Amino acid sequence: MAFKEEEDLIPIEDIPYEPPMPIELPSLEPAQVAPSSTYNTVNMLKEIRLMRRQRGKIETLDKSRQMLASQVAKLVQINEMLIKKVDEL
Length: 89
What we know:
single chain, mainly alpha, 0% strand
């Protein structure tokens, strides 16, 4: 495409001004209701955290029970030894 001659060009003042189309911006307010998938995901994460906490508590209780059982076994042995000593006297 060849350049137009100067006399063929339209002066810029003769070109009509058209304002740009307005752009609609999304609302910046937070959504009133979360989508159900987000709500379900949040609830599932809460349940998982709760289950992990409960599992941790159960594991701690199991360790405590094992320690108590071993201490009770030792006390029973000591008690039996004391009973034998008393019987000997």
